[in-house]
Amino acid sequence: MASSALQISTAISSSSSAFLGHLPTTTNNVRSSKVFLPARKHVACKCVSAPSAEQTAYKTKVTRNANMAKLQAGYLFPEIARRRSAHMSKYPDAKVISLGIGDTTEPIPDVITSAMAMRAHSLSTFEGYSGYGAEQGDKKLRAMLASTYYNDLGIEESDIFVSDGAKCDISRLQLLFGSDVKIAVQDPSYPAYVDSSVIMGQTGLFQKDIEKYWNIEYMRCVPENDFFPDLSTISQADVIFFCSPNNPTGSAATREQLTQLVQFAKDNGSIIVYDSAYAMYISDDSPKSIFEIPGAKEVAIEISSFSKYAGFTGVRLGWTVVPNELLFSDGFPVAKDFNRIVCTCFNGASNIAQAGGLACLSPEGLKAMGETVDFYKENTKIIVDTFNSLGFNVYGGKNAPYVWVQFPGRSSWDVFAEILEKAHVVTTPGSGFGPGGESFVRVSAFGHRENIFEAARRIKQLYK
Prior knowledge:
This protein is α/β, with parallel strands linked by helices and 464 residues long. It has helices at 53-56, 66-70, 76-90, 110-122, 139-149, 166-177, 191-200, 255-268, 307-310, 334-345, 351-360, 363-389, 412-423, 449-463; strands at 97-98, 160-163, 183-187, 206-207, 212-213, 216-220, 239-243, 271-275, 300-305, 318-321, 393-396, 402-406, 425-426, 428-429, 440-444.
């Protein structure tokens, strides 16, 4: 009621409204009255901003893995993607062509996707449904991998472990070897070898003056040694990561060179982890598998993938070969420990992806994959011809989908930035693959044909 309205003679800060909480909230049975607060007894209420989230964030008592702190900046390819995104924000109307990250662009052949679609649909039926499969992979797929890629090389179905990709198996192998080993890598090489070694605790700190981690043997692979290391200068290493055809240089090791590598491993008691993810791109008589070299089964593991053959970068399917003949220093089979790692860390590759793998290895699938590889190799030729016409020193391209271009005396990150800024084309700075990659950029042949032609035109215009 109007006659019951409360009259407050003193202004009170809104932050002090809680002081009035004892007053009635209704006027029923309340006499008309006035409430007076002493005029000289003002209440001072100080408004204070809340502490920032950073100051009040709860912290656990778990110590951060010190090995993670050793890693330098971000992983190479996400960093390139970040810079690409920043460039697109700066130039929203530019058509940016990505020839940096080695991601396939062409559709997966229909013979392969049809098999995956059928397998996916069968999961909706009682007859076709299946849950967990064998951690080592579908038995039929393992047998087909052995007969297709390792026929007459003495590799059995039981030696093959199907996975969700070679990159994942690199980390599983590092878990197998543990923290007390020393690795050797080609310099330059795929950064996952080094980063996984750091995370496992196999290395010391990064040495900024030489751009290397302590306790990793960097095997320099440059034009002067035909991209194959001088093994006589390499100190003893327990595990040797070796990729052929090499990512990023595109160079494939010869039979003679791989024979030297196998003998080096035997002489030093080392294990080779041989990455053959680009073997289908080999055009000459270079070996496509380390197991083509006599004695390799006693010193080598091979990892491979369908990613760059069938466009499975998103489907995820690969394999690792661990021969029964490969033994640790105490005589225990390496394959048995790797099987234990796989069974502990992995529930097996997707049954749908494995159906795609079986289709890849059918006569029709092999033909279709070959056509896809040939398409990318034609892209490679366009890129090689472009840089050759401009007078650059150009390497790779013959046996791999990567072209390795030299810019003498220049920072590879500066060249990357220049090509991105002025031509709107993404490449990969060579130093991201190791100190041996400085002054080079890697150009990927994975792209639609019209984009390859357009990128070539822009690069010619930039460096003419």
